[in-house]
């Protein structure tokens, strides 16, 4: 479980526009305190006007004294990315929370690593590739995207040389996942981030080839019908309170209305802020964070979207 992180104020010291709807922001501490340490795969919450909170992955290298964020304007933005692109300039002071990490890279887990990034998904992957290079393991980095909408390309070429493979759509550089996974050794680990279509396809093919796979999704999974379609009870182990959750309510909403504080942010199962320990009961995991093995272990749930798959569950609250 990620520790609760305190807020930190940062100042935008550089704003690099890659295109009209894609920028890279470089951030420095506003005060004298250094920025908190972070590991590849981590993200921060950007606290925006009106109570909006948006998550952005930290761009490597992880040991740098400044942070970088890649910001893409989302077509169906509810204001978060639009505000970041239209209102944030050099000199702007931002309040962040974090960093948190639900997408860790362990260089010791596999002797060989393959990194797959699509579009803005390069942001957490870049730091992982840097870590693999520093650890001296065998790795390759595949980055797919559209001409003029790919960030850090020169930097990635300089750091990773022939280990970097660019798949630019306009140049016929389609990323053939079947060919890629078919050539992988069994001891390879794959880390992937990008659009849902890429991540879902890679996860399915990795499973078919028996390859270890970890992913981060920037979009919520499409919700299917719940496993348990009736009301259920949630018992809180430490307070002794029990609440009932109706079919049309989330666990998070009911807990908040009952006066139980649960740290939350995205409310769509993508950021991991509301991670809550599960003591007992079956869980219908509906987030975009947990891997299949983590869902099977079922020792945590994200109460903004996940539900009980039985009449009663007990949470570590």
From TrEMBL:
EC class name: oxidoreductase
Record Pfam families: Fer2
Cofactor(s) required, per the database record: FAD
Recorded GO MF terms: 2 iron, 2 sulfur cluster binding; dioxygenase activity; metal ion binding
Keyword annotations of the record: 2Fe-2S, Dioxygenase, Flavoprotein, Iron, Iron-sulfur, Metal-binding, Oxidoreductase
Domain FAD-binding FR-type residues, every copy: 5-106
2Fe-2S ferredoxin-type domain span: 232-317
Keyword Oxidoreductase among record annotations: yes
InterPro entries attached to this UniProt entry: 2Fe-2S_ferredoxin-like_sf, 2Fe-2S_ferredoxin-type, 2Fe2S_fd_BS, Beta-grasp_dom_sf, FAD-bd_FR_type, FNR_nucleotide-bd, MRET, Riboflavin_synthase-like_b-brl
EC numbers: 1.-.-.-
Name under which the protein is recorded: Oxidoreductase
């Amino acid at each position: 479980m990620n520790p609760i992180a305190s807020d930190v104020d940062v100042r935008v010291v550089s704003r690099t526009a890659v295109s009209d709807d894609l920028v890279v922001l470089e951030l420095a501490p506003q005060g004298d305190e250094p920025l908190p340490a972070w590991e590849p795969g981590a993200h921060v919450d950007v606290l925006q006007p009106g109570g909006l909170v948006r998550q952005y992955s930290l761009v490597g290298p992880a040991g740098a004294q400044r942070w970088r964020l890649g910001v893409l304007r989302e077509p169906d933005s509810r204001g978060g990315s639009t505000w970041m692109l239209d209102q944030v300039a050099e000199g702007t002071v931002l309040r962040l929370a974090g960093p948190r990490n639900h997408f860790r890279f362990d260089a010791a887990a596999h002797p060989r690593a393959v990194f797959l990034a699509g579009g803005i998904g390069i942001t957490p992957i870049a730091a992982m590739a840097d870590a693999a290079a520093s650890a001296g393991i065998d790795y390759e980095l595949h980055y797919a995207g559209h001409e003029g909408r790919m960030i850090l390309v020169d930097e990635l070429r300089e750091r990773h040389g022939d280990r970097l493979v660019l798949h630019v759509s306009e140049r016929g550089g389609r990323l053939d996942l079947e060919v890629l996974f078919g050539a992988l050794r069994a001891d390879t680990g794959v880390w992937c981030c990008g659009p849902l279509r890429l991540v879902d396809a890679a996860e399915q093919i990795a499973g078919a080839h028996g390859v270890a796979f970890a992913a981060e999704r920037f979009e919520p999974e499409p919700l299917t019908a719940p496993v348990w379609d009736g009301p259920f009870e949630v018992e809180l182990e430490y307070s002794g309170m029990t609440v009932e959750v109706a079919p049309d309510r989330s666990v998070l909403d009911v807990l908040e209305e009952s006066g139980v504080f649960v740290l939350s942010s995205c409310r769509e199962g993508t950021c991991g802020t509301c991670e809550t320990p599960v003591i007992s009961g079956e869980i219908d995991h509906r987030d975009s964070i947990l891997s299949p093995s983590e869902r099977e272990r079922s020792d945590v749930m994200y109460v903004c979207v996940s539900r009980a798959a039985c009449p009663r569950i007990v949470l570590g609250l």
